[in-house]
Amino acid sequence: MPAVIEVEDMSVILKIIPVVLIFLLGYALKRLNILKKEDGDLFLKVVYYVALPALVIISIADIKLRVDFVYLPAAAVLVALTTTAISFFTGKVFHLPQATLGTFIIGSTIMNIGFTLPFFITAYGKEGLARITMFDFGNMAIIFTFVYWLACKHGTSSMDTRVMIRKLLLVPPMWALVIAVALNLMKIRIPFFINDFLQMVGWMMTPLVMLALGLYFSPRMTKMGPVLSATFIRMIIGFASGFLLANLFGLEGLNRSIVIIGAAAPVGYTTLTFSYLEDLDKEFAASLISFSIIMGMIFTPLLILLQ
User: CA end-to-end span of the chain, whole Å?
Assistant: First the structure.
């Protein structure tokens, strides 16, 4: 039995290594001035508007939906609320300026599910993608409502409810999720040539995401005390929250892994976007994201191996 486990662990490691190498390739291309950080914005736009929706549709349209899937988005919301509450009081201890405190709180809250997707796809295939997408449904819902409100509250601009609603309604992966669930429930089969097209488009996601992460990565850090604390809250407290919720909901198998690993995701890139939009601490946001990526490159594959 131990020998079998070792073989399975080695198989997962070998699958994840190419994903890590693409990340390193992205960073190397930036250092060699072949690509720029701004190119990462373009890559993520393609992922956000094209590749990820395509993958969501082909992954969910054919799977057998179960009632226990509802626990996935619910768990994401509860994890986010838990880390928000803890980060609010922790941020006060550091006596951070208003703008930095805002970034500290939203950074501790936003889960970078986009970072975990290549690892989930590599380790668990289409089934893993389908379920992490359900988990991310709850994550995105709270990001573009409650978290955006927090960013506005700590920033310089006033909150515009209409803008928030419009952003939530125009999230492509969420629309893809709705379409895929509808196709699934109505038992509508996707024509083979459209399915092949969606697969080809969806396959772009993993290399584009990891290249973008490599381009965004910066080893320069500021405010290391708050950076370490926010990363600890986002990933370790998030992990603990996911573990407790998985036990509370009685989740098993892949659903359990999704909740635990997703809850331990690094700081989301939306932290930097909201910091820019609401005039929060952008430099602190960049440092926080970069450090959490380093931790994520170690922590996420390790959690997958341990599940």
Answer: 16
> pTM above 0.90?
no
- Structure token pair of residue 275: 């910091």
The single-letter code of the amino acid at 9 is D
How many residues appear in the chain?
307
Q: How far apart are CA 164 and CA 283, in angstroms?
A: 24
**59-114 confidence digits (pLDDT tens):** 777 777 778 788 999 999 999 999 999 999 999 899 899 999 999 999 999 998 88
Distance CA 227, CA 229 (A): 5
Give me the sign of the Cα torsion angle 125, 131, 137, 138. Answer: negative
Confirm if 161 and 54 have CB atoms less than 8 A apart. no
Task: Tell me, letter by letter, the H, E, C secondary structure of the chain.
Answer: CHHHHHHHHHHHHHHHHHHHHHHHHHHHHHHCCCCCHHHHHHHHHHHHHHHHHHHHHHHHCCCCCCHHHHHHHHHHHHHHHHHHHHHHHHHHHCCCCHHHHHHHHHHHHCECHHHHHHHHHHHHHHHHHHHHHHHHHHHHHHHHHHHHHHHHHHCCCCCCHHHHHHHHHCCHHHHHHHHHHHHHHCCCCCCHHHHHHHHHHHCCHHHHHHHHHHHHCCCCCCCHHHHHHHHHHHHHHHHHHHHHHHHHCCCCHHHHHHHHHHHCCCECCHHHHHHHHCCCCHHHHHHHHHHHHHHHHHHHHHHHHHC
pLDDT tens-place string over residues 100-114: 999 999 999 999 888
Nearest to 98 by CA among 159, 145, 152, 161: 152
